[in-house]
């Protein structure tokens, strides 16, 4: 079957802001073409594009360590005792028998799970179906935990809050051991049934998981290769972070006429940049991930094309309001392989009195034309662009009047190749 990719290229100018911070709170940077530039991480873009897309599709997937807690909450609402509900929910995780996946003392899992939002209800239903067996095991586990705690407290009293070798003993009992031991006493046929039922839930996927993928180590059936790949967005030009010194007034001192200085002061780091942003969507893989449901696949394509350029990147938004839209969105539907045009900016755009946008747009058009000459255009099923600029960029295909028109045109092209 002929490959089918939707490449989305964006040139986006952002004002003085800090859209994506590193662990020190400074704007993220990348070195490309020998110079340091502002950067927006791909994970940052994926997260906000996904949530924007999910809202439009009215379907959600949740990435969390709190699956047992969410399941326990549903069980408690159904009349279960809170302690028993949490133990039962944790045992469902253990029932899957996935190497490396366990539960923690806090009640969650030791790894993030990415599941359809409906999975929590499905797991609660499994627990309810096997309530008697899970309640019995939970009671046995709690008895073992209580016994271990009493033993620990007795040793602390005997040794002056330390063990015999003088090391402090952890006040918290390790609940994973007692839970696992108690669950192993559940009859084997029931454990097998629980394993199959829980794995079926963990392997469920919806449009969001089909698009963005999922990896669960040591459980190949739950792993989904995402149809969307997203690059780190980098500035088309060099640019350092800028330091902003700020101060805040203490209103009560000010109102009392006792103002002698700032109530608080500090500094923050910001940047302003024109970014090149790129993502590609493998339409064939998306359809396969959705078990051949082309209608849903087309909806995902439509909403992703809208979400990727327009999703709000909200970091520090209250003090910067960086709510700009791209200056250009270019979409190319290809039947060979994805093609990024980031090479247009390997040589950084120089600063001019006209800013970076005109030269960034021209560089993208020139680079696309070079690709067309080198690779030919027979694998471009269609391409078009929409832009705030007055210029039409010939190498980027036809100019659409607006984003809706660009999306409609793209969908018409992929429909021809998927039906």
- The 3D shape can be described as flat
Biggest sheet character: 10 strands, mixed
Number of helices: 14
Strand tally, please?
12
Q: So what's the oligomer here? A: single chain
Itemize the secondary structure elements and their pairings.
Layout: E1 5-17, E2 29-32, E3 35-40, H1 42-57, E4 61-64, H2 67-77, H3 82-95, E5 113-116, H4 119-129, H5 131-159, H6 176-184, H7 188-202, H8 207-212, E6 228-230, E7 233-235, E8 242-248, H9 251-255, E9 264-282, H10 283-289, H11 294-310, H12 317-320, E10 328-334, H13 357-375, E11 380-387, E12 398-399, H14 403-418
Parallel strand pairs: 11-12
Antiparallel strand pairs: 1-9, 1-10, 2-3, 3-7, 4-5, 6-9, 7-9, 8-9, 10-11
Helix pairs in contact: 1-11, 2-3, 2-4, 3-5, 4-7, 5-6, 11-14
């Amino acid at each position: 079957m002929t490959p089918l990719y939707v490449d989305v290229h964006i040139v986006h100018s952002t004002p003085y802001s800090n859209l994506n911070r590193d662990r020190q709170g400074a704007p993220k940077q990348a070195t490309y073409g020998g110079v340091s530039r502002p950067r927006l991480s791909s994970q940052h873009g994926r997260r906000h594009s996904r949530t924007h897309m999910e809202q439009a599709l009215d379907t959600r997937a949740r990435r969390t360590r709190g699956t047992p807690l969410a399941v326990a909450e549903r069980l408690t609402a159904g009349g279960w005792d809170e302690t028993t509900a949490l133990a039962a929910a944790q045992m469902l995780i253990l029932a899957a028998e996935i190497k490396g996946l366990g539960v923690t003392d806090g009640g969650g899992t030791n790894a993030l799970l990415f599941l359809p939002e409906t999975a929590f209800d499905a797991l609660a239903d499994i627990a309810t179906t096997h309530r008697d067996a899970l309640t019995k095991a939970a009671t046995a586990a709690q008895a073992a935990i209580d016994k271990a705690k009493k033993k620990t407290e007795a040793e602390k009293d005997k040794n002056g809050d330390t063990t015999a070798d003088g090391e402090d003993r952890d006040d918290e009992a390790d609940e994973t051991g007692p839970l696992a031991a108690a669950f192993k006493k559940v009859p084997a046929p029931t454990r097998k049934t629980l394993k199959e039922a829980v794995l079926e839930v963990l392997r469920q996927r919806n449009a969001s998981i089909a698009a963005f993928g999922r990896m669960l180590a040591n459980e190949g059936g739950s792993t989904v290769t995402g149809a969307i790949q997203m690059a780190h967005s980098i500035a088309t030009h060099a640019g350092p972070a800028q330091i902003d010194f700020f101060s805040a007034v203490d209103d009560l001192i000010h109102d009392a006429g006792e103002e002698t200085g700032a109530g608080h002061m500090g500094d923050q780091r910001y940047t302003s940049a024109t970014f090149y942003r790129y993502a590609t969507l493998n339409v064939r893989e998306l359809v396969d991930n959705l078990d051949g449901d082309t209608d849903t696949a087309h909806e995902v394509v439509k909403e992703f094309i809208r979400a990727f350029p327009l999703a709000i990147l909200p970091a520090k938004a209250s003090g910067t309001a960086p709510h700009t839209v791209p200056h250009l969105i270019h979409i190319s539907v290809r039947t060979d392989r994805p093609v990024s045009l980031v090479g247009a900016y390997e040589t950084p755009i120089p600063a001019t009195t006209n800013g970076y946008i005109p030269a960034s747009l021209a560089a993208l058009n020139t680079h696309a034309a070079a690709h067309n000459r080198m690779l030919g255009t027979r694998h471009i099923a269609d391409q078009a662009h929409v832009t705030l600029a007055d210029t039409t960029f010939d190498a980027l295909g036809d100019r659409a009047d607006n984003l809706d028109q660009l999306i409609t045109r793209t969908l018409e092209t992929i429909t021809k190749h998927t039906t």
